[in-house]
Design goal:
6 helices, 74% helix, 0% strand
Length: 151
């Protein structure tokens, strides 16, 4: 069974490869904020499937992102609709975690399904208005599933 570090590392390396292709083809201009944003997207989506496990780092990461979305909303860091959208998504994921997460390693339910990753990455990509957020998020999610199948 692979751990959270390996999930993140594998997703990070796959994303780094995609990132180098995207920038070498000049599909996106270099922007430090975009790089930071991608780092957090890769972190979030590489651990997202494990939110159905009570003690996972995916669950811890979800709690932190939910708190961050509350802070962003309270401080009005992003546009109102972006703040509200993120708050709703992370709130819904938090509710799912509270209602359906299990202890132990026998979790792998709906959050380990491809459709789950697609829905969440599309929603976050739309809310943040960035196709690359969707692409990197979904690839990081798929990377997690690949590692779970291999190990």
């Amino acid at each position: 069974m692979s751990g959270y570090k390996f999930h993140f590392l594998f997703s990070f390396l796959v994303s780094l490869l995609l990132f180098s292709v995207v920038f070498s083809l000049e599909l996106v201009k270099f922007n430090l904020f975009f790089l930071i944003e991608l780092f957090f997207i890769v972190l979030f989506f590489s651990l997202l499937p494990d939110i159905d496990s009570k003690k996972s780092y995916g669950s811890l990461m979800l709690h932190l992102f939910f708190i961050l979305s509350i802070v962003l909303f309270a401080l009005e860091i992003l546009a109102f609709w972006k703040n509200l959208g993120l708050l709703i998504i992370f709130g819904a994921l938090e509710a799912y975690h509270i209602l359906f997460s299990k202890k132990g390693k026998n979790h792998r339910k709906f959050p380990h399904k491809l459709i789950f990753g697609l829905i969440i990455s599309v929603l976050i990509g739309i809310i943040l208005g960035n196709l690359w957020i969707f692409i990197f998020g979904f690839i990081s999610f798929i990377s997690h599933l690949i590692i779970d199948k291999l190990w």
